Amino acid sequence: MRAVTFGGVSKVIVEQVAAPRVVEPSDVVVAVRVAAICGSDLHPYSGRETGLDLGTVMGHEFLGEVVEVGSAVERFSRGDRVVAPFTTSCGGCWYCERGLTARCERGQLFGWVQDGHGLHGGQAEYVRVPLADATLVQAPSGASDEAALLAGDVLSTGFYCAQLGCIEADHVVAVIGAGPVGVCATIAARRQAERVFVFDLISARRELAARHGATALDPADATAMEQIQAATGGRGVDVVLECVGSERATALSYALVRPGGTIAAAGVHCEPHFAFSPGDAYDKNLTYRAGRCPARAMMEVTMPLVAAGEHDLGALFSHRLPFEEAARGYEMFARREDGCTKVLLAP
């Protein structure tokens, strides 16, 4: 089968690899209809995250059709249109029972193979899904492939970030980053709070966030902080949803949040240290919450939203490419070229 594989820093290769098959009775094999490039795929691609084996099939965002079913699978049959969260989960361990499916004792991340161990990803014609009954979710019949796919990662991650923020109706919220996760966090925040500000350096992304009811600001604009101070009586915002994953984003979050406020971080951080010190956190009575989204648990919230069609989620995809152009898609996404916000790949 054709697959997008890791070829080293700044290199992905579309090549023929062995097609997956059912290995365990709880497995299914899915024929991929659409897959997406995620911002976290760029960490190994750009060399910020190391350890990924050469030849690993990339990607953890995909939707497709079940074509092979293990003997122990009960919830899915051939022909079902399904979405996977970015990690597998068993549904029965201590973590899964408490909704922290991203930390399942048997869970694996799609698209991560290290030292020969792990799970190949979904940027391929076919993908093996272990623990299928607890991992997969049926795609709503009326939802587009691309909208349903988003529930497996960025939509759920945005909503989880807002959940970590413990937003109340009278809160003023700031979202850092208007990429796909940031826009989804904006959608979630606007369902809970009236005043939401979004910060991003790129005007096209600010415009996308503004469509969902946020006030979009350029962090390079000297008046941006003045607007926050005016909106909060000089205190700073109650909650910051940090959706970038960089030292600069964390520093901005700290500057914006009021004493006693909360920073909720959904961005994947690769830097070795916080942008603020323990003393800084103490001086602001700061609550900082972070962690990998339990996407499978969050899909119970986000997939009904997809089914209802309340938001134009397809607008998050700026580019749609065939697999053969995956290398160009990665390069555009990494460099933010041609207004690229998110890339959809189709085999």
Task: Report the total helices.
Answer: 12
Beta-strand proportion: 25-35%
Helix share, percent:
25-40%
Major beta sheet summary? 7 strands, mixed
Order of helices and strands: EEEHEEHEEEHEHHEHEHEHEHEHEHEHE
Q: What is the overall shape?
A: globular
Secondary-structure content class: alpha/beta
Task: Extract low-pLDDT stretches.
Answer: none
Mean pLDDT value: 96
Strand runs, count = 17
Q: Give the radius of gyration.
A: 20 Å
Cα-to-Cα separation, first versus last residue: 10 Å
What's a concise summary of this model?
With 347 residues, the chain is of the alpha/beta class. The protein is built from twelve helices and 17 strands.
Give your account of this protein's structure.
The structure is a single chain. The strands form four sheets. Strands 3, 4, 5, 8, 9, 16 and 17 form a seven-stranded mixed beta sheet that branches. This protein has a six-stranded parallel beta sheet with strand order 12-11-10-13-14-15, sandwiched between helices. Strands 1-2 form a two-stranded antiparallel ribbon. It has twelve helices and 17 strands. It has helices at residues 42-46, 94-97, 132-135, 145-150, 154-165, 180-190, 203-210, 224-231, 247-256, 278-283, 295-308, 326-335, and strands at residues 2-8, 11-16, 28-37, 61-69, 81-83, 112-114, 117-119, 126-129, 137-138, 172-176, 195-199, 215-217, 237-242, 257-265, 287-290, 319-322, 343-346. Strand 10, helix 6 and strand 11 (195-199) form a beta-alpha-beta unit. It has 347 residues and is of the alpha/beta class. The protein is globular and about 60 Å long. The protein starts with a strand and ends with a strand.
